[in-house]
Amino acid sequence: MIAREIGVKKCVARVRNNEFSQKDSVLTAEKLGIDLLVHPEQIAVDARVSLIEQIT
Description:
By secondary structure, the protein is of the alpha+beta class. It has one domain (about 1-55). It is about 45% helix and about 10% strand. It contains 3 helices and 2 strands. Helix 2 links the parallel strand 1 and strand 2. The longest helix is centred in the last third of the chain and has 16 residues, at about 40-55.
């Protein structure tokens, strides 16, 4: 929200809680003015699954 106040064009947030990406959540990315949510743990899981799929 502070980023929007100072005029940042794109706001990216690193989050660990998947609750922010759920549509019925009280706090959503849209409400907080966030353009992109990055879930590092989910990205790591997706990469591992992709690697496993490639070798099987």
